[in-house]
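Researcher: We are triaging several targets before committing to wet-lab work. For this one, the compound of interest is zinc ion. I'm pasting the protein sequence and the ligand SMILES. What I need is the predicted three-dimensional arrangement of the protein with the ligand bound, expressed as structure tokens, so it can go straight into our comparison scripts without reformatting.
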Amino acid sequence: MSNVSGSSSCASNVRERGRGKVVGVPKRCWCGEVIVAKNSKLETNPCRRYFRCGYATAKKLMNDDHCFKWVDEALLDEVESLTLHIAKLQIEMEIERKMKMELEKELF
Ligand SMILES: [Zn+2]
């Protein structure tokens, strides 16, 4: 048994607590508050846009579990889900095209 412990550097990411990770652009925080887009003032990420729970913004909350998501990451999610959606549509179109060809073969 290899029980590796003590090196969990990404522990801060394990705070989802079943509220569900938002995929794509968040519409509303789990608390019911609307999402606002803000500019980051962090030195590590200057001027990077992010989505944030309106309540948490108003209260200037830090390290809470209200909605927070970088805009670029959210948009990347959107693009990925759109790509998947398009791929699915293409498969469906291909199936329909084949079915149509089969039908035409039977008719003519
Ligand atoms: Zn919230």
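Researcher: Any quick observations?
Model: The longest helix spans residues 71-107.
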